[in-house]
Design a protein that fits this description.
- With 289 residues, the chain is an alpha+beta fold.
- The protein has two domains: 155 residues, no CATH class; 55 residues, no CATH class.
- 42% of the residues lie in helices and 8% in strands.
- The protein contains nine helices and six strands.
- The protein has a four-stranded mixed beta sheet with strand order 1-6-5-4. It has a two-stranded antiparallel sheet with strand order 2-3.
- A hairpin with a 2-residue loop joins strand 2 and strand 3.
- The two termini are 31 Å apart.
């Protein structure tokens, strides 16, 4: 399951995949919800992988990509003729640099054909990471990277709860740009489900679902099998009022709140929804039976 902190990405996704019709579901996750560890030694990554441009695992990711581009299979780059020419010039430039570094070539100049050959052989190692963007089996490449992290470091990183990455960056796919979070653990989704009122427990001993997976707050120990969080009614009422206000304001302006169009910034109504949601969570009181 993929998420993004950019509302513009949700709107763009709705426009492209939903023909302008869709819903934006808010959610809040703390670091420890996503797999990080918070303790006396400070915040540790724990079971979270971060390959964002400034992320803790970015350098390892880039090095792994350069050494394992073959895992992309028949990787191809979709580019215009102008982009192809620029890529060829970069390849030749790399080749000239490799040729000049060889002491045996002192005082010599490589032909364009020789430079292109050397550049092709050394492209993955020398080219800027942004130039390695390709279409292929990118999922296979990243899964191999996770196995590499688990085998060479913390075993939990082989199957992380959450992966923080780019949207629209190198070797990424999806609609929009900015950041995306790939949730790979049901426990994280349970937290979001509970916030949205999904998978609630019925009154008494009966449950709405026979599924062994149930909603659990991040603070609840996993070994406590009978702990059942109750949905905060005050939070629900606040969110409902926010949506009602958005609908009312939209109707007053003669537009449809269900067809957001193409805005690229969060509107005042959206900020109100976010503020009310945060306030509701700050006041929530989870009781357990």
């Amino acid at each position: 399951m993929y998420f993004s902190t950019g509302v513009h990405n949700a709107l763009e996704y709705i426009a492209q995949r939903g023909a302008g019709v869709g819903e934006i579901l808010p959610g809040m996750l703390r670091g420890r919800d996503m797999g990080m560890e918070v303790g006396p030694r400070g915040t540790q990554l724990g079971a979270l992988v971060d390959v964002t441009p400034q992320g803790a695992h970015r350098a390892q990711w880039e090095a792994f990509v350069r050494a394992n581009m073959h895992l992309l299979g028949q990787a191809e780059a979709m580019m215009t003729a102008q982009q192809a020419m620029r890529l060829m010039d970069l390849t030749v430039e790399i080749g000239h640099a490799v040729f000049a570094e060889n002491p045996a070539n002192a005082g010599k100049t490589a032909s364009r054909a020789e430079a292109y050959r050397l550049g092709t052989e050394n492209f993955y190692e020398r080219a800027p990471f942004a130039e390695l963007d390709r279409y292929g089996t990118r999922g296979t490449l990243f899964d191999a990277f996770l196995r590499h992290l688990g085998e060479t470091g913390d075993p939990r990183l082989g199957q992380p709860r959450t992966v923080l990455g780019e949207l629209g960056g190198v070797l990424t796919s999806g609609i929009g740009h900015g950041d995306q979070q790939a949730v790979r653990d049901q426990r994280v989704l349970d937290i979001l489900n509970e916030q949205l009122g999904i998978g609630r427990f019925a009154s008494g001993a009966e449950e709405e679902s026979a599924s062994p997976l149930r909603v659990r707050t991040a603070d609840e120990p996993e070994e406590v099998a009978d702990a059942r969080p109750r949905v905060d009614g005050d939070l629900e009422r606040r969110v409902e009022r926010s949506f009602a206000q958005i609908q009312s304001d939209a109707e007053a302006r003669g537009v449809s709140a269900e067809r957001p169009g193409q805005p690229r910034q969060i509107q005042p109504e959206g900020w109100e929804l976010i503020d009310n949601t945060i306030e509701g969570f700050a006041r929530r009181n989870i009781t357990r039976t």
